[in-house]
Structures are given as structure tokens and as C-alpha cells.
Amino acid sequence: MRRFSLKSLLQEASSGHQGWERQWRAPEPKKEYDVIVVGGGGHGLATAYYLATVHGVTNVAVLEKGWIGGGNTGRNTTIVRSNYLFDESAGLYEHAMKLWEGLSQELNYNVMFSQRGVLMLAHNHHDVISFKRHVYANRLNGIDNEWLSPEECKAYCPPLSISPELRYPVLGGALQRRGGTARHDAVAWGYARGADARGVDIIQNCEVLGLKRHPDGSVAGVETSRGTIGAKRVGVVAAGHTGVVMGRFGLRMPVESVPLQALVSEPVKPVFPCVVMSNAVHAYISQSDKGELVIGAGTDQYVSYSQQGGIQIINHTLDAICELFPQFGRMRMLRSWGGIVDVTPDRSPILGKTPIEGLFVNCGWGTGGFKATPGSGHVFAHTLATGEPHKINAPFSLDRFRTGRLIDEAAAAAVAH
Amino acid sequence: MLLIDCPYCGKRPEVEFHCGGEAHIARPETPAEIADADWGSFLYYRTNPKGVHAERWLHGHGCGRWFNALRDTVSDAFVATYEMGAPRPDVAPENAKA
Amino acid sequence: MSQPFRLPSGGRIDRKRPLSVSFNGKRLEGFAGDTVASMLLASGQHLAGRSFKYHRPRGILSHGSDEPSALLSVDWRADRGPGYRDPNNRASVVEARDSLVVKTQNHWPSLETDIGAVNDLLSPVFVAGFYYKTFMWPRTFWDKVYEPVIRRAAGLGEAPEVKDADRYSNRHAHCDVLVVGAGPAGLAAALAASADGEKRVILADEGLEPGGALLNDVTSKIDGKPAMDWVAESVSTLDARENVVILPRTTAFGYYNHNHVCMVEKVSDHRADAPEGLARERLWQVRAGEVVLATGSHERPLVFENNDRPGIMLAESVRAFVNRWAVLPGNEIVVATSSASAYQTALDAKNAGARVSIVDIRLEADCGPELQTAKDAGITVRSGHTVIRALGKKRVSGLVVAPIDPDGAIGEKQTLACDCVAMSGGWTPSVHLFSQSRGKLRFDVELDAFVPGTSAQAERSAGACRGIYDLAAVIADGLAAGRSATGATDTAAGSTPQATASFTGFQPVRVLPTDADASKVKAFVDFQNDVTAKDIRLAVREGFESIEHVKRYTTTGMATDQGKTSNMNALGLVAGILDRPLPAVGTTTFRPPYTPVSFGALIGPARDELFDPVRKTPIDGWAEKNGAVFEPVALWRRAKYFPQAGEDMHGAVARETKAVRNAVGIFDASTLGKIEVVGPDAAEFMNRIYTNAWLKLKVGGCRYGLMLREDGFVYDDGVVARLAEDRFHVTTTTGGAPRVLRHMEDYLQTEWPDLDVFLTSITEQWAVIALQGPKARKVLEPFVSGIDLSEEAFPHMTVQSGFVCGVPCRLFRVSFTGELGFEVNVPADYGEAVWKALYEEGGKHGITAYGTEAMHVLRAEVGYVVVGQETDGTVTPDDLGLSGLVSKVKADFVGKRSLARPDMVAEGRRQLVGLLTKNPDEVIDEGAQVVDDPHRPIPMRMIGHVTSSYASSNCGRSIAMALIEGGRGRIGETVHVTTPGGFTEAVISKAAFYEVKGETADA
């Protein structure tokens, strides 16, 4: 792998950039792999990367139905934060945050992780209690998160209106300064390049159609649109399509797939310094390096694989955005799109074993998976390499839906991820 | 925005409705006799199909009635809507009208 | 600025109505019917902006909504004050009128001299994706140094600084047929669809007048007359039909599920005389039975070195400026083309007085009749030539061209001096809306374009948007589409108009052949995002092979024009490099909106007081008059406290809570959700929905009810009264009312249809006035008729019907304070009057109005829980110490089975207890975490959290409630609670802090 650096960039500039090599190969699938990762999004590619780098497992294939990073990885609003309430979630997302903080250097790929701060606004008494509960819990878990008064919110995010006349006045906010955004595509590409350089085969346009099992029921490989490929272990990391893939394997999952929409405005000069989330009115907003306001809306109410939702969802989000930021009323929506998010009953992911020996699953990230990408890949690589969950992902088992030991961040906080 | 054919009121815009998730998941008659795993399945496991999905809708800003619908989750086209308690119609997905 | 390039006659401008706009502080002159783009060109001003990345000078490329380069900041109503300016307006679609103030963007210090242009020199470094390869060291520099610099350089115009001063409206419409586009195909479709006089037809077009491409056309004839005569006749026919609505200036931007098409209409931006208050734009949400898409096509630029120089324009746009706006974009025009249609531009420009020559990439043999027509007109045609590069910087000054030898080699170059280039690389059908409707695109090799394939909705395309370019065929196709949309047969309508033949056909070229080092030259594919052919080659070289990857890596097609002019060139280029058929590279997914849409239009009226309108109780007016401070609770606003002069919240709440314990308080509880459960099986229904038993509740009795979700967690609570054998009056939490009703209806209709029960929301029918305190009865007594208020006749937790102030009343003897209490339910319209009467009478007894804050303190003093505060969706009845309310006898109720799951009965669950700080004056934070030992290392184990915390003047100290692991077994133990600065000590107690004196609620 040729290292990226200012030096190599300048060298290439003088020769018309003819010397850059492919960032990842386009190999034919081998007959068999030690591990097959189903799904070439950020989580799947990160899993492959850490299998190779942390566990030395390099006989790995990532099978992607379309093009890597083309699903939710490339469709989300790129918010990264770790200020979750419960110990289990805090552990998982903070693990990811620590990896984010060195990710560009680790991957030798600038993922533009920008710790601009994530400010979550409290609009009613319930929000205030809930956010303070988060702030205190985070402090004891070693995660930065601080409570700001309305005036401090305004100072941190000058475009914000804190007028008491607002329909949902700003009563304060919880700020995680280490939170921020990253360049979503670069995360997929950076992991792909890193994994590829260590021998991982990234196989695009390869749809998984079924599971091959040994007579004892354990995993033997997968049937794909490009033939049968053997594997000792298989990890499904298919986000919104997890239910479809697992269905082909004969398993039902406690997930439902729903549309989630987002939009960007036309690009403008820097006007918005951080990330603001407002759960009571349900909107997220930040400004990309390119200058677009990036705005996340809510989910539609029904199961759908259409990657398209209703405009009423977007309209309502913009109602809220313009209430908080009335000067954006004349900004224009440039592009809107939808993703398919897989939502679990407790809005927390499932990361671990399945009833089939050798088959593992990493899904259910709902609307908040991007921020977990490095951490998710890291612990799932451990799970696939050792056959057992890492202590960080052990609580995120399928079994919790039997015992009732849910990790219900949404119910506990009315906080969208 | 979906256009939903309420069996009682006719076609109305989605904003008048609330989606109640998958249909035809009957509450067990005697929950106390159900094993934890099966109860967990009843509570949390859904078919989540890529294709025709039987689902419940409430015409909340209308007649107030719950009813069932078959909808293709790929095209979002409704295949049928029918009264609560009626059996799932045996309709092929190609009859879906967008 | 005068208008040296304005033609002496012609055009669809009104020379009797001159106007001017301010352009970068200079006066720009023009006429009604002009756009800012046509005014700029009339004045000879091509330079209209600086590009996104390299800050290269850019001019006007197009005459329509596909313009990528000429982006302006426009202050639409500078004369009316701030709040009317927005950035990134395409000069080609800003209709000119007096008092517009427009400015160019993305330059410093000026349009002519832009320091940012240094980026152009650094462009060898700033290739596609360069930022992924550098700026990584040192690590902290990304946030602090590199990113801020990149951000300042990026972006286009400046965002508005102040609140939008305009208003917007919203309209829902239904029609049988929606026709999008009023060019020849759309007009024909609308004529055919509306012919029966009954089918409701809406015809929408983004332009200011119907006609589409015919507006640019002075040569075509329809039925022997100028094409625009046919347009005028068609429009007047449609206008006369009552079943037709024509919407000019209306862009269909989004095609959603089930033929839901969203359009935005420009209502007032183009009107200098617009009255204040007239909406700026209107959002049309159309639900169409059938849709006809007649959205036309976009011309492709040619890709050659410096093809972005001002003065280089699309050929059809040059024609449009000449014919429609009577502006000659240059005196010396080179038409560079691989398409027949550009020949008409050459002919029209020559007729208008320009010196014109044609450079055609095609060989003579590949040309059609256009070639001879041009030659006959005396135009020099260089067939089989390529364009090597453009000369000039802020304005094109020449074009270096060369013949391409049969072996592909570049022949001898020659420079053609010019001040304008009209280029055409062929045409791309505008399939955006079709693609949004999720129809399947099909690649047509003949047309070198994606065209509509299988429809996914009740929709069909007509005319150029499906690759039909000849005018006669376009009209015929439009008529057929209109007929098919109404189900009429093709033979049903009258004759098809006859039209003259059009110059059609083109040869796809992607990137023009050159002998220059392709890795060095800047030949632009995406003008706005500064993406060059070499950027795309680099992306492919690095393994980005799908068009989605190429787009994301290079940003081609991601600009505000959404790739209207660039997508096909990019796709073709990638396919060429990979030597794959074009569809194998992938199709671009088109997403709403077709052109950018203002947030204001999408919001419509949902702003200020119409954004989530506030629900107010019947007593809200009184509360406001009496100085209440309000808080939002769900969609309601509720009086939080009633401060007297000089009082803060703490003081007011201390006074209000004391008054309730010592005299009497009056509280507006109208927001409580109320549901009437009626029917022979009402009690059985209640029994199944609630955890506790209802069958034996006597008529006239009240009971506190606890409701679970099926997963066993507390969902809602409230007092329920049995008014009759078959009638229950249920109350819910304020926020819970809608979902509780839905939850009840769900079970009733879907699980227990055998039960004969009706549910009715009565939240808004009853105003609820709570009188709480030892003197409550005294206040109420004088107004009550038909009810004996004595303890014996009307004990705690009972209900009676009668009259208060002569108004029918449901009177509850209940308490949420522990004190003697009544809740007076009267019809909402009488709420304020009854409240006032009680308040006045109460004056004799020291009555005090109290708000939600005092209500919370009072209930906490006696240990009552608030669902949503003590509970959070993860709390069971036993966690709250309410096991007594969970029937052990009932075989089943909603949530019962879940309570038996392993984790629900596990040891160590958090249980509700009280917390008393060691320092009685210290009020801990609600939401604070509780630990055993604050000296442990981080991460520190937490054993609970504080749910409620107050200063209680009745207790003379602070009180708090908390959920603590095994808390009920730890009464008396000391724990540590987080504070903003550290920890404080508190002792676990029972979750009840105040002993009610005198006649208590529970007496």
C-alpha cells in the first residue's frame, strides 16, 4: 500500500497523478475463507480491517451486494458522539470514540473526523432531567459531556435562537465537545484500503443468497450470486437488509427496517460551527466541509425497503430547524434521500452469536450506527476471531429479548440516536 | 406520502393514519403458559419481509378504526386493505397498484 | 450599463417597459421579460461568478434551471428592509424587475480580482480526493488549522443573516391528470387529456410562460404557422376549459409515493408590485390520478481544455438568448458541436448579425440536412474537427481547433478568434421525475441516453424526456400520452398538427480528442464543483469504478444543478476508460428536489404561532392575566407558578405549597387526559387493560389505575371513576392521552372485538379545577347543588354528579397532594367562569392559585409518583413499590406475562426510595447519579439516579426521590450523589416525606 502523505501528493502532482494505485483490488472470490463478512458498509469493512490488524486473520472476504459504502454508510448525517446513558452503550460508543480519535492516522486516510462538538438541546423539563442524567452518568463513565445554560448554548452555537418565545424554548443543552462529524465515504474507503492491503478480499457485486451448513448444523459457507464460497465463520453486517439475509439463512430477527430521510442545503460559507440535535422537535443539523447544511429527519412509520419516505417527514423537520434557526428559512434544500435502517425493540444494536454455530450478527443500529463504526468493527472482529463476544459487546446479545434485559436508551431518554 | 384505502372511509393521505406494525400476530390466549423465549418472540420478533407485508393501520384522524393492509415493502404499493379479523387475502404481489 | 448587445428588434421582451437592477452596485438595464442573465449578456457582461474550488472566472452557461455557474446573491426586497436576501440564485431563472439587488459570489476582494484564484495555480495538488491523502499530521491540526481553511474556501454564497421576512403558502390539490412541462409535448398532452371537458387537468411548468423549447424557436412551423402561434392557441384553448388549471413558474420537484407530486410555485418574487404579505412561494402537494411527464431534455456541454471560460455557452442557450431575449451573446461566435440542433443556433445567430462559423466533431458523412442548410447560408463548417482548447481568461478570446485524421491523429491546429462559443454535445432526456417515481430507466444506445423504461406508478413520459426530439413526433407523442392518461383510445381525438422537421441527432463524444497531455489539462465535466476529466480518470485509476463511487470521490454531479449538464459526460467518460457498456457503470439515482427548493416553501405556514400550535386550557386566559409563568408540557402550555411582585420561582412555589397545606390551593388540571369507557363489558375491558381489579369497584367509586405496556413496563396511570355499571371516566397523564386512547382502541378492536365497549376521548370536553387543602370543602360548598359534600356522604376516592355554579359537574373527591381535595369537572366552556367564582369565594379562605411546579412538590412530599418522571419506560410496578396494584388474582392483563421474565424478577433492580441530603438546604439535581463510594476510579459503578428533587418548605428541607438498586432494603444507608462540582452525601429514606395534618385525603 502506497502511503498517503503531503510528500506523495506533491510528487504525484508533478507527474499528473499517474502513479496512484487502486485503493483496493477487485479480486475473484477464493474457494474458502476463514471468515466471511456479509456486507461492505463501514461496519463490515472495519470488522475485516480489525480481523487482519488486531487478530492476524487475513484470509477474510467482505461480500458486498452493490458497491462498498453504498448503503447507510453513505447516507447518514455523520454525527459522532459517545454520551450514551447506560454503561453498556457508553462502553460501546466510547470505545468507538477513542478509535475515531486516531482513525485518520491509523488508516493513513483522512476521514476528516472533526470534533466540533455535539450539542443536544433540552426543550422541556423532561429533557432537562434526562440530559442531566446523561451528563452525570457520562462523568462517572469517563465520558465528556457537560450541561450548558441557554446562554452558553448560544455562545457555543451563535446561529441558535434562545428566545423564550420559541414554541419549545431552549432550556439548556448537553454538550459533548469530543463529538462531531466525519466524512462517511472516507471511512468505508479507508477501511477498505487498509483491509485490502493486509490481504482481505473485498468482493463487490456479490449478493449472498443462502447459507451452507455442515451436517452438524454449523456454518460451512455461503451461497452467492458468484457461486458457493466456503467459510469457517460468517458475520452478517447487512444493516437494513439484515432481516433479508438472515431470512435466507432461515432465521427471524427482532428488527424491522424503516426509511430514514436526510437532506442537505445548497452550500454556503461557514455559518454553523457545531452539531446540534433537538430531540423534542426531532432534528439534527451540522454544516459539512463543503458548506452544505446537513439535516437529519425522522423515520417513517412503516416497514419499507424503498429508500424513500414521505415529504411530510422532511417538512416537519424543517419546521423545527427554522424555528430554532429562523435565518435559514431562505436556504434551499438541494438534495434529500432515504436510507433503510434496521431498528430493534430497544433501539440498541445486536452484536454477537446466533442460534447457528459459526454464524454471527451485527445489526440493529437503527438511526445511529455511523458513530459506532470503528468500535463495532473492533469488537465484532474479536467476536468473529475468537467465537466469543468481547466484554464490550457481550450485553448486546440476542438473548436479551428473552430475558427482558433490554438496553433501552430511547425509552430512558427519549433520545434519538 | 402514502395514499391509504381505509376500508371504512376510502382513500386518505397517510398523515391521517398511524401504523401499528405487523398484522396477524395474535396475542396468546394463555400467556402464563408460554415459555420466555416464545413470549419474547411474540413481543419482539417480526417477519420484516422484503415484499408483501401484512400490517395494521389505525385511521386515527378519521373513523378511528383499526384495519389491516397488505403492502409491498419494496414499492410501497398497497395490495389490499381489509377489515380487522378478516383473513389475509390471497393476492399476488403483482396486483399491487402504486 | 447600457445594452450594446441588445438586438434592435424581436424577442419576447416588452421594450415599452424598461427596468433596471443593481448588479454589484452598478445599474443594469433591461426590459420586462428579461432574466438577470439576459440583462448581463445584453450589457456585454459574461463574467458572472467564481468557481467553487479553483475560483476560476465563470460566465453564463445556460438559459434555464440547469445553469451551474452564474450563481448570484439576490436581495429581492432591499427596499423593504432585511430578511429578503438569499444566495446561490441562478441568474438564468431570476426574472428581472425593478429594485432587485444582485451580487456575484465566492470572490475576494472583487469579481474581477479574486485572491482565491491562486487555487487555480495549485490545482495540480488539488485533484479529486486530495484531502483524503493529506492534512493528517499533526493530528490536532485537522480541527484547528486545515479544516477551518478548507471550510472558508468552500461554500458558495453567504447564508442569510436574519429571519426570513417572507411568507409562504401551501396548497393540496387533486386532479385526474397532472401534466408536468408545458412545452410542445406537455401542451399537447394537456389538450388531449382535458378534451372531454370533465377530467380535471393541472398543467405545470417551471418557466414564466408556456412553450418550453418553442420559446427559443423562430423557425419551426406548426400547421403552417409559427410554432409560438400554436402555443398561444393551445394555451387559450386550455384557459377556456374550466377543467384545466395552468400553473406557470411552478416546478414539480418531487415525485413521491402513490402519485404524490410536490411542486413549488413562484408567487411574488417576480412582481415589483407584490403587496406586502403576499406569499413568496406556494407549495403544491398534488395527488394525481395519472401523471404525464413532459419535462424535456438538457443539452450536454463539450469537454475540452478551458471549456469553462466566460462566453462559452450551451448552443441552445445562445439560440434562446438571441431569439427569446433579443440578445446577441457575442459578435464572433464559434458553434462547436457534435449535434445537429446547434446548426439552428448558428443560423439564428448569423441572422441576428453575428459572424458565425461551425466546428463539428462529426464527419460530413455523419451529418444530416443541417449541414447543407448551413453551407447554403454561407456559414463555414469545419467538419471532423476537434477543439483543443479555449483561449482567454475572463472571456473567451479564441478557440484552438484541429482536424482529426482518419487514424485519429490530430491535424494542424488553427485558432479561431471569437468572443462567444456555442457548444453542444447532444441531448440528455430529463428523466429526473421519472426516476424519482422509481420507474426503471433503460439505456438506449441509439439515443445515447437513459430513457424511461418500466413505470412504477400511474405515469407516462412524453416528448424529449423520453428521447423524442423531432417537433412533429413530440406533439404526436404528447397527444398520445394525454389520451392514454384519460383512458381514451388513440383514434378518439382529432387530427395531429403537422410540424416542420427539426435538426436532430448527435454523436456522443465524452471528451474531445486532443494532443495535449490529458493528465494536465483542465477540461471541465462538472462546472460548479470544478470536476475535470482528469479528476474522473484519477478516480477510476484508484479503483472507483461504479458511478456512485466516482460521484462521491470526485463530487461530480453533486452540485446545486445536481448534474443536469454533467452526469452523462461523467458516465460516458467512466464507461470509456473501463471499456464497459455505459449501463454497466451504473445509472445515477435522481433524488428530490429537481431544482433546489426553499425551506420556507417546504415549511409553508408552519412557523411562529402555527408551528405545532399550542394547546391552551379554558383557564389559560385567567392564568396569563394573573401573571403565570408557563411551561410546555406535551403540546400544552401549563401554568408553572404564579409569582407575585419580587418573587422568583423558589419563593412562589414555597408560598403556593404552604397555602395548599395550610388553607387551600386551586389548580388547573384540565390538561389531564380523559377517556370515557362505556358499554356492557366496560369493567371487563378495564380489568384487562389495567394491572389492578375493576369488577368490584362500586358505582360512584374511584380507583387509582396502573397501566403497563405488553412488555411489562409502566405505561400510564391515573384515577378512574365508575360513573355507572357500564361507564368509567378514565384519566391519563397529560402527555399520555393520545397514546393511551390508541393503546386501548388497539386492544379493543384487534384483540378483544368480542367486548361491547366504546371509547371516547373527553379531554377537551371537561375543564378540571382541583381544590386542594384543608379548606377545600369550605370554598366549594356555596356553589354546589345536588351533592352532599360531607365526609360521610362523599368520602375520599368517590365521585358524584351534580351542579357547581349551576353548571353540570362531575365532582371527584380525590387528592394528588395528600390533603382534602376535590376535582371539579365542568364543561370546558364554563371552566373559566367556575374557576373565577371559586377563586373569588376562596379569597375568604386564603385561596392560592398554584402551578405545576408546586403540584410536583406537593405530590412528592407525600410520595406520589409521576409517570414519565419516576418512570422512563424501563420501570416495573414493583420498582415503584406498587406491587399492591398488580393483581395476583387476575389470570391475565396487558403486561402480566412480561413481569415474569427473568430480568424483571432479578435481584438488584432499582427501586424507588427517598433521598435526604445531609445538608437539608441542598437541593440535588434531578437526573443526578448515585454511587456507593465516590473514591472509586472512573468508570465508577452507579447504583441509581435521582428522579425528582425539590426544596420543600412544608418539610423544611430538601426532598428527593431516586431509583436505587435494592433501595427498599437500604433505608437509612448513606450514599453519594453527583453535583455539578463533585458529590454530596444523602441518606436513603422512604419515598414519602410529609405527614398530612387534620383531615387527610386518606381519612
From TrEMBL, chain A:
The protein's matches in InterPro entries, at most eight in alphabetical order, are given as:
FAD-dep_OxRdtase, FAD/NAD-bd_sf, Rhodanese-like_dom, SoxB
The signal peptide stretch is none
What's the catalysed reaction?
sarcosine + (6S)-5,6,7,8-tetrahydrofolate + O2 = (6R)-5,10-methylene-5,6,7,8-tetrahydrofolate + glycine + H2O2; sarcosine + O2 + H2O = formaldehyde + glycine + H2O2
Q: Which UniProt keywords apply?
A: Cytoplasm, FAD, Flavoprotein, FMN, Nucleotide-binding, Oxidoreductase
Annotated compartments: Cytoplasm
Could you tell me which Gene3D superfamilies the record lists for this protein? D-Amino Acid Oxidase, subunit A, domain 2 (3.30.9.10), FAD/NAD(P)-binding domain (3.50.50.60)
Q: Which cofactor does it need?
A: FMN; FAD
| Superkingdom of source | Bacteria
Entry's family note: Belongs to the SoxB family.
Q: What is this protein called?
A: Sarcosine oxidase subunit beta
Q: Which organism is it from?
A: Jiella mangrovi
UniProtKB/TrEMBL annotation, chain B:
Please give the name of this protein. Answer: Sarcosine oxidase subunit delta
Q: Which InterPro entries match?
A: SoxD, SoxD_sf
Domain of life, source organism: Bacteria
NCBIfam families recorded: soxD (TIGR01374)
The record's annotation in Gene3D superfamilies points to: Folate-binding superfamily
TrEMBL record, chain C:
Q: Which residues form the GCVT N-terminal domain?
A: 622-889
Q: What is this protein called?
A: Sarcosine oxidase subunit alpha family protein
What is an example of a Pfam family matching this protein?
Answer: SO_alpha_A3
Q: Which InterPro entries match?
A: 2Fe-2S-bd_N, BFD-like_2Fe2S-bd_dom_sf, FAD/NAD-bd_sf, FAD/NAD-binding_dom, GcvT/YgfZ/DmdA, GcvT/YgfZ_C, GcvT_C, GCVT_N
Which part of the chain is the Aminomethyltransferase C-terminal domain?
910-994
Q: Which UniProt keywords apply?
A: Oxidoreductase
Alphabetical list of Gene3D superfamilies matching this protein: 2Fe-2S iron-sulphur cluster binding domain, sarcosine oxidase, alpha subunit, N-terminal domain, BFD-like [2Fe-2S]-binding domain, FAD/NAD(P)-binding domain, Probable tRNA modification gtpase trme, domain 1
Xref: PANTHER family: AMINOMETHYLTRANSFERASE, AMINOMETHYLTRANSFERASE, MITOCHONDRIAL
Q: Locate the SoxA A3 domain: which residues?
A: 522-602
Q: Give the protein family.
A: Belongs to the GcvT family.
| Domain (FAD/NAD(P)-binding): residue spans on this chain | 176-438
> Has the keyword Oxidoreductase been applied to this entry?
yes
Keyword Oxidoreductase listed? The answer is yes
Q: Which domain of life is it from?
A: Bacteria
